[in-house]
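Progress note, project year one: complex with zinc ion.
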Amino acid sequence: MFNKIKFKVLFLFSVFLIVSCTKTYDPLTGKKVYTLLPPEKEIQLGEMYVPLAINQNNGQYPDKEVRDYISKVGFRIAKVVPRRLPYRFFIVNSGEVNAFALPGGPVFVNRGLLLVLNNESELAGVLGHELGHINARHHARFLEKQYGIAILLNILNIALAGKDYGTLLMDISKIGAQLLTLHYSREQETEADILGVRFSYKAGYDPRGLLETFYIFKKLGKPNAPEWLLTHPLPDTRIKNVKKILSKYDLNKPLIKDSPEFHRIKNKILKTKPSYEFLKKAVKAYDQKDLKNALRYLNQSIQIFPINNASLTVRAIIYADLKEYRKSIKDAEKAVQIDDLYFMPQLILGYDYLKIKNFIKSIKILENAKKLIPSFPDTYYFLGLDYEAIREYKKAIQNYRTALQLTDGKRGWEQDAERRLLTLQRLLGY
Ligand SMILES: [Zn+2]
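Model obtained:
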């Protein structure tokens, strides 16, 4: 008994020692600070949610030149920030005016943001602000406070080992949802503004870009309030603060305000805007179960912009609904080729192959989709059907169980999964 307690105390103590030794620097004051979540774990956590962020924003913008441009501007700023992290910059298909970051390095801008910006220094201001949140560890501090270090490390250990996640999947799912809608406090916004101005200036940009974006967002106002304002509150005091911060900088020295490249890229995005408008109409028609018009709009959308992976994905969903699996496979495969981090087309593709009874191929695709977003219930249900079909009953049971654990009860397959689970358990004598 005593030994056990002692062991437990020792164990806790050693864990505490390991994690409490992580040292980093406060980007504002330059002072040493100690963190609970070690940077490499913070990085892994952020990485884990990149596919979720991409999926919730309808995939990465498919034009490589546009993606490369966003990365180029991003890295120019990332080079001058204090925290050395594996930064990555993404542009996603969503038309909402928004930008956001994940802990440890990933930064996202929406297609919709680029549509309302007027010059490169404004983009630099927004990217600088998001890098400010990452550098001030705002996400990491939220996670430490909300979950505690033990559960975070546990999730990572299990997720990275690719083991059966069990009940931890619920935590993985909850943390993901929270990270993607993280509301910053006023203090954190002020801190990110100070850093955003500092970083963009240090990178050679006119730091007034951030202020300009505030005016753009304010003007957009209601009823089309940019999504960015929901997670990054923008009271007038923030505008005043940034003006005050700017007064400390030499704005007469040569600074980058704009580039021809910005406008070339923005024009490219503008040209594909009608394609996304047709997609929006298609989704609305689909929600009203008007598949015929949904398909018509999607055909138009894809004709304008043949690599629109968001539209290809929705068309693949509709073809699958219509049991036209070959056509669905063609669209989904193309979407996967364009963006292999986009979960949804992989799920559809796995479903299509299940339906045409190519179980092995379906398993291969769905197991990969599972790695991208481990908390999506349908993947497990489809995998259950696949494994059951090839008589791998233990794996089928495991997948049905997880599917039922994760479902919100409204997926439509719950009764079937329960029935199959019971039958297989009886068969195996569980
Ligand atoms: Zn912010």
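The two ends are 34 Å apart (CA to CA).
Residues 18-246 form one domain.
No further modelling is planned for this target in the current period.
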